[in-house]
Amino acid sequence: MERIDEPYAADERTMLIAWLDWHRATVFVKCEGLAEDLAHRPLLASSPLTTVAGLVGHLRWVERYWFEHVLLGGPDDVPWTDDDPDRDFKTDGVPLAQLLAEYEAQCARNNEIAASLSLDAEAKVERERGRVTLRWLLLHMIEETARHNGHLDILRELLDGVTGD
Predict the structure, then answer these.
(1) pLDDT the model gives residue 132
(2) Sign of the torsion angle spanned by Cα atoms 41, 157, 144, 39
(3) Mean pLDDT, 10 residues at a time, the chain of 165 residues
(4) What's this model's pTM, rounded to 2 decimal places?
(5) So what's the pLDDT on residue 14?
(6) Biggest alpha carbon distance in the chain?
(7) What CATH number does residue 62 fall under?
(8) In angstroms, rounded to a whole number, what is the distance separating the alpha carbons of residues 7 and 159?
(9) How many CA atoms lie within 13 A of 68 on its CB side?
(10) Which of 39, 74, 106, 142 could form a disulfide with 52 if both were Cys (CB 3.0 to 4.6 A apart)?
(11) d(C-alpha 27, C-alpha 12), whole Å
(12) Which helix or strand (DSSP H or E) is residue 27 part of?
């Protein structure tokens, strides 16, 4: 996934998708050249599932959940459960390249979904405070992905010293 600078001026939909795609592509920048064993290495005693690979797996499933389940009303087939709420972070044995490919495919699918709907389209699945719109969902995915890019940035520096944007 190539990181393309977002436009300084555009319509709302273009800006939202451009910013989300920029943050999605940053996930790939943060993972580029990382050794496989390091991608799965936990660094935080308080959160042993927080690994580079785990974050990529989590982002993939969060994208699927919000777009395909909540927005479209598709099956709730995400890996987390009440008994194992962090299951989407568990990626042992799954190569980082596979996780990134699955994430990229999900992001492409979600862009197709977003392009087919009005920003005011309401989700099929009701949330605690009502139904979210596609606009809300895109903003949520921007903040979710940006937040985890910060985690990836820190993990990468601690794992092999690589820094950068």
Answers:
(1) 96
(2) negative
(3) 90 97 97 96 89 97 97 95 93 95 98 98 93 97 97 96 87
(4) 0.95
(5) 96
(6) 46
(7) 1.20.120.450
(8) 33
(9) 16
(10) 39
(11) 23
(12) helix 12-31
